[in-house]
Amino acid sequence: MRPRPSVRDQLVARIADMAPAVRRVFEVRPSREERTRWSSLTVHQLEALVALQQGSLTMGKLCEHLDISESAGTALSDRLVARGMVVREVDLSDRRVVRLSLSKEARAMVDRFQSLKRKRIAEVLAGIDDEDLVTLIRIHERILARAGIGPQRTREDQDMSAPEDEGRDGHMELNGSRQ
After folding, report:
1. Which position has the higher pLDDT, 162 or 151?
2. Domain spans of the chain?
3. The CATH number of domain 27-126 is 1.10.10.10
4. C-alpha closest to that of 110 among 28, 33, 32, 24
5. I need a labelling partner for 76 at 20 to 30 A (CA). Which of 82, 141, 162, 171 fits?
6. What is the greatest pairwise CA distance in the chain?
């Protein structure tokens, strides 16, 4: 007879069971029309374009960001270059280094994708109060930190995810406003 799993083991198993469904819930699902307009890009290709939205990256940095091998990154970038979505440029400071950047068409697509992504996340989180969202953000940040992955956030995101103060009445203050 096997010993009963600890509470911790049961919780970990429950999270492991839910993880794929939670990931799917947050996925952006563009309409068929948009997917056709977006040249039927895969989710990985869209993720690469989103990573390049902040500016040009070396192949190594892009692969690191996407958590894929260099060979997979090369194949991915080859397909994006062939579609006119990504431009390869020689790094002026080191001619051996190739940098990838978005084409104008891809930049417009990424902006639309980001808009859909934020809308989808807002829909999923609509029934959850701000205090629980702050807790969720803190938990995700701790998970990412333990995994050695720093979230890439804008200043606006940082302000929202780290409440400045908890007032005397126990309410959180986000960006100086009482919640």
Report:
1. 151
2. 27-126, 128-179
3. yes
4. 28
5. 141
6. 66
